[in-house]
Design goal:
Blueprint: E1 6-8, E2 14-16, H1 19-32, H2 38-55, H3 63-76, H4 80-94, E3 115-117, E4 124-126, H5 130-139, H6 144-160, E5 165-167, H7 168-181, H8 198-207, H9 211-231, H10 234-242, E6 245-247, E7 258-262, H11 263-269, H12 285-300, E8 306-310, H13 312-316, H14 325-336, E9 347-353, H15 358-361, E10 364-366, E11 372-376, H16 381-398, E12 406-411, H17 413-417, H18 419-433, E13 438-442, E14 450-452, E15 457-458, H19 463-466, E16 472-482, H20 483-490, H21 495-523, H22 532-535, E17 551-557, H23 559-567, H24 575-599, E18 602-605, H25 611-624, H26 626-632, H27 651-661, E19 668-672, H28 674-678, H29 682-695, E20 700-704
Parallel strand pairs: 3-5, 7-8, 8-9, 9-12, 12-13, 16-17, 17-18, 19-20
Antiparallel strand pairs: 1-2, 3-4, 6-16, 7-16, 10-11, 13-20, 14-15
Helix pairs in contact: 1-2, 1-4, 2-3, 3-4, 5-6, 6-7, 10-21, 12-14, 14-16, 16-18, 18-29, 20-21, 20-23, 21-24, 23-24, 25-26
């Protein structure tokens, strides 16, 4: 049974989708040319329906979309005569019967009264076939002779139809058909049109509250079409459409996923960090706040997700002086806020430390005017602690406001040894009990230093230890692998098949990463594209954001549901499920590293998965695999690699089990939902934080009122 249920008619109404109507129309056209095989007509109609389902998985096709697809399928399957008959019948039915137009004698590039309606702001222009020649030679690389022949054939069809108006989109479709019949189908992609059907646009205009909302939707739809025509390979595009993977931000191909820099970067280079640029280096905390605001605002134009700033409380301390820390804390949080606009980016975060990290203890601190003070950051912890308490107090009053940055709090052994630092942790636990979204990051001895907490990026450049301002990272793209669908494709109990499906999806995810890397190289390279500015050197001679050495992210959704489908349960108390989960998580980690090494891409397996991606993948699977989804994921997919704990009050036991089993990944437990968090008292949260640090190998503990959307 087809997934399509409705069709949009030309008068704006809707009617039931009926594949039999497609069968009959193809059969009529075929019979007119002596090819009237009803079996073949049904097969062709099935192909038409299949392509429509893939293209309109989240929308209702217009009757013109269906007819365009019939023409395309007939042409591309070699039924040329039937295609011509179908096109003639379609043109005949759309022509006004009461006032038949007089057929014109076509000649190449004649004077004509035919009006071409364009999709540009110019509105339209009179017919001029030489424009087709120009476009084909410039865009498709055809010779002038071949381009003229194609233009002449298209002109003959158009003028012979006796039309007075024609859309540029239809002209391009006719050009594509002519290229196909001449064996030049490889030139079609460069002529492809991206845009929005008029019916959809009209509905958006009618239903929207703001003009900017319509503009955003049009841009997203057009850029999404462009992405899957020009940026991503057919393999990656198909996998995205089928829900095997989800390419986050495919409708924003020119954006990075997210970005990170340390506060030292702003202290050293000011609001305009580009080499040779005029920028006021912050002399005091007011200057730091303004410079930070401008840098965050500037970078937010380039990223889809978050702009994260590291070591905020410690690195701000040398500029704090004796001023009121509470006033400046609110001002600094305000500088990190990104006003909600309905378009990227989706937020920012501040990383603060619960003590002086060992590597920063003797690092030469930067003070007013970007000057190194000859004193290590270890000497500034008293001011940093005072500022941290001020930050917490400010967040206490504003964390419910939209746009407020999220918080990552680093905890190490020094935090638990220092009574004042430990009191900071207790204060944070009290705020968490009130609903403050917060992530505790655990730094243990013997583990590699992470420069950025959100994605656990490790320090690879030793320059960072001497000059922390060099720690700036572009995260280029995230691709989500749908583990649930991999299990459904493999079949119940087929773990070997599940591993094969996961590996195929993972390879396709890396293909999407390679596609994006090539596209971004063009945008920041010789094309002088919109990302060129980010690749320019900062005042330290390094690119502001080195996109060529950017990080690529792989995330997984539907993992517990996949294990539940294969094993019959996704509970932590079941040994079989635990074993399958541990083996699969290790498999994913190793394969991610293997693919990254093989393709020369800096990539890592991260979590949790953006909720918008999870919702889309679940919706696709609910239609494609209704039985397994209703049995194991009726309410949706979970966003991490962790299984479900049967007893919510035994959370610590669950944490211990996870920490001991997931040996090859860096696990995180997310306590999600405001009600669940507020059921925990501050002392219980504090005990949990201490236990997780001391008795497990967990990487971080996240308290989240709502899941990530970026």
């Amino acid at each position: 049974m087809s997934k399509l249920t409705r069709v949009k008619n030309r008068d704006g109404s809707e009617s039931p989708f009926d594949e039999e109507r497609i069968v009959r129309s193809i059969h009529r056209a075929s019979r007119e040319r002596g090819e009237g095989d009803i079996v073949v007509s049904r097969e062709l109609a099935g192909v038409v329906t299949l392509f429509l389902e893939r293209r309109h998985w989240d929308s209702i096709p217009h009757v013109d979309d269906i007819q365009d697809m019939v023409e395309r399928v007939l042409l591309e399957t070699g039924h040329m005569e039937a295609a011509r008959a179908y096109i003639r019948a379609r043109q005949s039915s759309s022509r006004t019967v009461s006032s038949p137009a007089k057929a014109r004698t076509p000649t190449l590039f004649p004077e004509s009264t035919l009006f071409v309606v364009t999709g540009s702001g110019e509105g339209g222009a009179m017919w001029d076939a030489s424009r087709i020649v120009t476009a084909l030679t410039r865009e498709a690389g055809l010779s002038a002779e071949t381009a003229s022949a194609v233009a002449g054939a298209v002109e003959k069809k158009i003028l012979g139809a006796g039309l007075e108006r024609i859309s540029s989109r239809l002209i391009r479709s006719l050009v594509d058909a002519e290229l196909f019949t001449r064996g030049l189908s490889e030139r079609i992609s460069s002529q492809a049109v991206v845009g929005v059907p008029g019916y959809d646009l009209k509905k958006w205009i009618e239903d929207s509250a703001l003009p900017a909302e319509v503009t955003r939707k049009v841009a997203e739809r057009s850029l999404s079409e462009f992405s899957f025509q020009e940026v991503f390979s057919g393999e990656a595009g198909r996998a995205h459409a089928e829900g095997r993977i989800h390419i986050v931000g495919a409708d924003y191909p020119m954006h990075l996923h997210s970005a990170f820099f340390t506060l030292e970067f702003v202290k050293r280079f000011g609001a305009s960090p580009w080499m040779g640029g005029e920028s006021e280096i912050p002399e005091d905390f007011g200057g730091l706040r303004e410079a930070l605001r401008r840098v965050v605002s500037d970078l937010s134009s380039y990223v889809l997700g978050a702009v994260d700033v590291g070591y905020v409380n410690l690195m701000a301390a040398p500029l704090l002086g004796e001023e009121d820390a509470y006033d400046w804390a609110g001002a600094l949080l305000g500088a990190l806020e990104i006003p909600p606009s309905g378009i990227p980016p989706l937020g920012s975060s501040a990383e603060i430390v619960g003590g002086v990290p060992d590597f920063l203890r003797f690092t030469d601190a930067v003070g007013p005017g970007g000057i190194r003070l000859g004193r290590g950051y270890g000497e500034f912890w008293t001011d940093a602690e005072r500022f941290t308490r001020a930050l917490l107090d400010s967040l206490h009053h504003r964390f419910e406001a939209e746009g407020t940055p999220s918080l990552f709090f680093h905890v190490d052994e020094n935090t638990f040894r220092n009574p004042s630092s430990l009191s900071l942790v207790r204060g944070l636990c009290s705020e968490v009990a009130r609903g403050l979204p917060l992530t505790f990051v655990f730094e243990r001895k013997g583990t590699e230093l992470r420069i950025h907490s959100r994605f656990l990026t490790r320090v690879e450049d030793p320059e960072f230890f001497r000059h922390p301002e060099s720690g700036r990272i572009p995260y280029v793209q995230m691709v989500v692998v749908n583990a649930a669908q991999a299990a459904f494709r493999a079949g119940r109990g087929n773990r070997a098949g599940f591993a094969d499906e996961l590996e195929k999806a993972l390879k396709t995810a890396f293909q999407a990463h390679e596609d994006k890397a090539a596209f971004m190289a063009d945008l920041g390279g010789e094309l002088q594209g919109p990302l060129k500015r980010l690749s320019l050197p900062a005042s330290d001679g390094r690119p502001v954001l080195d996109i060529a050495r950017g990080e690529y992210l792989v995330s997984v959704c539907g993992f517990p549901e996949a294990i539940g489908f294969l094993s019959g349960t996704d509970l932590l108390s079941e040994k079989d499920a635990l074993k399958a989960a541990s083996q699969t998580a290790s498999f994913l980690t190793l394969k991610t590293k293997e693919e990254a090494r093989k393709r020369g891409i800096r990539a890592s397996l991260v979590g949790p998965t953006p909720r918008a991606a999870v919702r889309r993948l679940h919706e696709i699977d609910r239609s494609t695999f209704p039985g397994p989804v209703s049995g194991h994921a009726a309410e949706g997919y979970r966003t991490s690699l962790l299984l479900r704990e049967e007893m919510p009050h035994d959370l610590l036991h669950a944490v211990r089990v996870i920490g001991s089993l997931y040996s090859l990944i860096e696990p995180c437990v997310t306590i999600e939902g405001l009600e669940e968090i507020m059921e925990m008292d501050p002392e219980g949260i504090f005990d949990l934080v201490c236990e997780v640090f001391e008795r497990t190998e967990m990487t971080y503990l996240r308290f989240s009122r709502m899941g990530p959307e970026s």
